[in-house]
Amino acid sequence: MNTSNIFKLSLATLAFGLLFTSCKKEAYINTANQDAALFTKTSDNYFVENVTGDSYTGTIGVSRAVTTDTKIEFTVSSPTGAVEGVEYTIPEKFVIIPAGQVLDSFKIFGDYAALNGGTHQLILRFKPEVKSFVDADSCVINLMPSCDEANPLISILQGDYNNTNETLGTSAYGPYTTSISSTSPAGPTSATAVVENIFDSGWGPISFTLDWTDPNNRTTTVITQNAIPGSDAGSLNAAYAGLPVAVRPYATSGPGTYSACAQELTLNMQLGVGDGAGGVLGYFGILYQVKMKR
């Protein structure tokens, strides 16, 4: 909260496999061009799972059986800037349709961690020398990470939250920008997230425990600090100017919540005043709640 908003508070006593949405398969029939190649889907979604070796299978066909093994090559581009070998890998940019057959497949391997919550687009297009149907000579693949709150990639929460709003008691402020500078494992179903610029006055870092033991009841819990770096309790009450702000979970409200998939967090805290020597003078008897959205 901007320091121009001074809250007059009195201290109270010690009181957070491969899924895939198939698009409609188009049927291409052209009796005048029976040996032309085609992508059997001109667009599709590839939801990358957080498992080693996850892949997408695409199919290329011809309109009639080939008489000899036939190699059909394609190129790949990404208007969104996906880098091969980083967000995705295609080991072979061709198929070889066996003699007597009409179809063969290729693989795309997505990298869940490298996607880091982002979405990319790949455009596959036959090389110019490939005879193909004009309305099926390319395929657009939307590459994105799947999201499972029971098995989250917590690192996707890192970065700026430009739509952060907060309330301290009945006083509201926002939007402003907070950020999560780092995340790290804390247990099999928990992690620590480090949040910067809470209160919009450079406070931080303040650390929170994210817990998904119950994926349907995910929580955020602030880790108690007797002196938040960069804080001045004078922002809360001028009488405490020069002393640090303390923070702890607010028992009355319970923990906050979060969604790794939606990349949103609600942080519940109780603020207090540190004594400047590692201890705490006391806590304000109201909820401080910060809601972080991208």
User: What's the number of helices?
Assistant: 1
Chain oligomer state: single chain
**Proportion of strand residues:** 35-45%
SSE order, one letter for each helix or strand: EEEEEEEEHEEEEEEEEEEEE
What general form does the structure show?
Answer: elongated
Count of distinct strands: 20
Low-pLDDT ranges: 3-8, 10-34
**Radius of gyration from the alpha-carbon trace, in angstroms:** 27 Å
Main β-sheet, in a few words? 11 strands, antiparallel
N-to-C span: 18 Å
The number of distinct structural domains comes to 2
Mean pLDDT: 87
What is the SS-derived class?
A: mainly beta
Helix content: under 10%
Structure description:
The structure is a single chain. By secondary structure, the chain is mainly beta. The chain has two domains: about 110 residues, Immunoglobulin-like, CATH 2.60.40; about 140 residues, no CATH class. About 0% of the residues lie in helices and about 45% in strands. The chain contains one helix and 20 strands. Strands 1, 11, 12, 13, 14, 15, 16, 17, 18, 19 and 20 form an eleven-stranded antiparallel sheet that branches. A five-stranded mixed sheet has the order 3-10-9-5-7. Strand 17 and strand 18 form a beta hairpin. It is elongated and about 90 Å long. The protein starts with 10 loop residues before the first strand and ends with a strand. The N terminus is likely disordered.
